[in-house]
Known about the structure:
Blueprint: E1 3-7, H1 11-15, H2 19-24, E2 27-31, H3 34-44, E3 48-52, H4 60-68, E4 77-82, H5 86-94, E5 99-102, H6 107-118, E6 124-125, E7 129-133, E8 143-150, E9 154-159, E10 168-174, E11 180-192, E12 200-208, H7 211-221
Amino acid sequence: MKKILIADDLKKLLLKRNDYLNIAGIRVYTAATNDELLSLHREEKANLIITHLDMSGIKNVDLFRIIRNDKDLRDVSLIMICKGNLVNRELCKQCGANAIITIPVDPDLLHGNVRKLLNVAPRSIYRAALAVAIEGKFKDRPLPFWTENISVSGMLIKTEEPLSRDDGIFFSFYLPNGAHVSGYGEIIRVIQVEDEPGVFLYGVRFTSIDPDVKYAIKAAMK
């Protein structure tokens, strides 16, 4: 499971478009100070840190010197957010930032860098009827669900049916270009929709899907 460690006051920026994080099963941790960030990273070994230059506690340059010089902590990517002047950019470079994003933050740029650094496939919003069958449930008959978005590695589906994490599913639906998609997947994330009682979102990771189907999905997302 991949992990993101983010400054507490930046969390809302990340969670505005977090469907791909839910589907990929990526866990998010927050820190209010650089000291807490270092402590959490020692404990959780984050894959990506997202922070800014105004965090209290240890100076940023000192913090990331500690991280980069520790063989158990150095294998982490870093996104730094700052005001767009040369002094701040230089400080971010000294921290070893993989990406520097200036204020005001462009959400597309932020999430594009998150996906890139975590190697998460981009997703396309696509809502379509989806037939789902799960062994031992629904009397082994497929019932209608809805896709919310999709990538070559998985999809987010929506339904009122209660399912469980780790359920294996058979799915079948059609892409906008008419291509038929079918295969097997595993539920890796369960989300209760806050403003729709009894409605759930499920992150599904594809576990068995033909290469031709992956190509069709990729082509449909362009």
